[in-house]
Design brief:
Oligomer: homodimer
CATH class of chain A: Alpha Beta
Structural class of chain A: alpha/beta
Strand content of chain A: 25-35%
Number of strands of chain A: 7
Order of helices and strands of chain A: EHEHEEHEEHHEHH
CATH topology of chain A: Maf protein
Largest interface: A-B, 26 and 26 residues
Number of helices of chain A: 7
CATH architecture of chain A: Alpha-Beta Complex
Radius of gyration of chain A: 17 Å
Shape of chain A: elongated
Number of domains of chain A: 1
Distance between the termini of chain A: 13 Å
Chain lengths: 193, 193
């Protein structure tokens, strides 16, 4: 599958072990290389544009002039959106608990932006999934944060962890997108790249 | 969590490694014991009733008189429904490919029925998720069946395998339910058992 990509050395520019696992799931060989990128964005940017914008910024950190012909860079950024607010990674224990209190008992959006970048072509897209949480009680929130320490996770939760098993009623859209990579959409784009 | 169940020895009556993994995800200690059960059902049974009916039958195979006071048995059955037809496990290679051709490019339902059974109480419920598949081409169908041999899977696919990564557009409902156990609904029922 994806023999059309055989001419490329594929680089996933993400430290996230979840994203590495998801790209593996598609069946593509790749290596991992990351660059430090300033992840700021304009405060008046529409919230649904932030994740694709940041994925584009991460891809452009691989300067065209230093990118060899046969390299393809894949970057991604995931944000959790509640109402008009973006939830990033929690600063500390209390911040993590507060984020979970915010998403408890309601539906929020998870947007992953992805950029596929070669010397000739750059393609950015995004996918949105809606996640409904059951009402979480204080005991559940504290148990989860203490046990799973979700400090590297936007919105303070991993859907593939205990909180996802017991707290998520329903997903509308791609489950893997909530984990950090919209694998099906990425596969379709790579097939036609 | 679920300290209310400490008085029970919990038995998961399922050979499925996926279900064992999902029940582990809830954080409950359990052991596995299965009984042979006749999995037939009346041909005029409404298709959405079949999975809960079969889970009930599997639970009742643990006769009340032999079930000790402090035991809780959890059973489950998952079916794939396309239109009015139930897709079971495929008989052979050709049957598996035909099932995938049938679900390609459309939406189907996955119903998991669950029964929680103790000497005093038996509770049966079910959860339905809708799964949308992208159009799969013949090369993808054959590659999947040859590589993943989905002969133990209702509908001939595992959503957590390659075909799920590249072929599933969208799930409405619980993702874990599609894998074989509606963990969130089960957790809520166990909390109040």
């Amino acid at each position: 599958m994806l023999e059309n990509l055989n001419r490329y050395n594929i680089i996933l520019a993400s430290k996230s072990p979840r994203r590495q696992e998801l790209l593996k799931g598609i069946g593509l060989p790749f290596s991992v290389m990351t660059k430090d990128v300033d992840e700021s964005y304009s405060s008046d940017m529409p919230v649904f544009d932030v994740a694709p914008f940041l994925s584009y910024k991460k891809a452009k950190a691989f300067e065209d002039k230093e990118l060899p012909e046969n390299y393809m860079v894949i970057t991604a950024d995931t944000v959790v959106i509640v109402g008009d607010a973006i939830l990033g990674k929690p600063k500390d224990y209390e911040d993590a608990c507060n984020m979970l209190r915010l998403i408890s008992g309601k539906k929020h959006s998870v947007v992953t932006g992805v950029t596929v970048h070669t010397k000739e072509k750059t393609k950015t897209f995004s996918a949105t999934s809606k996640v409904s949480f059951e009402t979480l009680d204080e005991e559940e929130i504290k148990y989860y944060v203490e046990t799973y320490r979700p400090y590297d996770k936007a919105g303070s939760y991993g859907i593939q962890e205990w909180i996802g098993y017991v707290g998520v009623n329903s997903v509308e859209g791609s489950y893997f997108n909530v984990m950090g990579l919209p694998t099906q959409k990425l596969y379709q784009i790579l097939k036609r790249f």
